[in-house]
Amino acid sequence: MASKIIPYDRYSFVCGAVEGATWLAGRPLSTDGFLILFCERGMAEFSINSHIHTQRRGSMALITFDMVVVPVKISDDFRARFLWIDFNATQDLFFLVTSSRLWDFIYKSPVCQLTGALARAVVRWYDTLDWISCNCSDAIKDKMMRREAENFMTAMTEHIETRLGSLGEDHKKNRAWTLTNDL
C-alpha cells in the first residue's frame, strides 16, 4: 500500500515540512497531485520512475501525480518544506504552463540543485506560503496559494527556458528533438 504524501483532504493547497521519519524506505508515495519539495537539511534518496535521485540541502523536487516515487534511503536529519497541490488544482496549474521545455526538464530531472540566489528566493517563497497558511482565512487561503503556485511555475518556466532555451511552437518537432537528444 502506498503512503499518502500529505494526509489532508480539506484543502487544495497545503504547505508545511516533512521530517526524515515521516516516510518509510521502500514504500511507494501516493502524490495525488503535485508536490514541490525543498530540502533544508539531510538527504533523501528516491526512486522516481525507476531512476535514483538524491535530494540534499538546497535541492528541489518537483513530483507529479503520474510519477512513481519510492523512498530508498532517508537520513534521520532529513527535513524538507513542501507545497502539495491536489489533483484538480494541479490540472488547472498545468494547463497554464505550456512550455514543453519545462515538462521535459521536470520529467528528466525531477530533483535539481538550486543556485544560491534561486535557493534563497525559494526559501522566501515558502515563508510566504507559511504566512498565508497561518494568517489567512479559509475563504481566501486557497485563492492566494493558487496564485503563489501559478507565479512559481511561471518563474520556473522562465528560469529553465533562459538556461536551456525555448523550444518554440512546433510541438511535434520539439518532442522529436527531445527524444533524439535523449538517445
Can you walk through the features of this model?
By secondary structure, this protein is α+β, with helices and mostly antiparallel strands. It is built from five helices and ten strands; from the N terminus they run E-E-E-E-E-E-E-E-E-H-H-E-H-H-H. The strands form three sheets. Strands 2-9-4-7-10 form a five-stranded antiparallel beta sheet. The chain has a three-stranded antiparallel beta sheet with strand order 6-5-8, with no helix packed on it. It has a two-stranded parallel ribbon with strand order 1-3. Helix 3 runs antiparallel to helix 4 (about 140-165). The longest helix is centred in the C-terminal third of the chain and has 27 residues, at about 140-165. It starts with a strand and ends with a helix. The model has no long low-confidence stretch (mean pLDDT about 85).
Protein topology:
Layout (H helix, E strand, L loop, with lengths): L2 E2 L8 E7 L9 E2 L2 E9 L1 E6 L2 E6 L2 E6 L4 E6 L4 E8 H10 L3 H9 L2 E3 L2 H20 L2 H27 L6 H12 L1
Parallel strand pairs: 1-3
Antiparallel strand pairs: 2-9, 4-7, 4-9, 5-6, 5-8, 7-10
Helix pairs in contact: 3-4
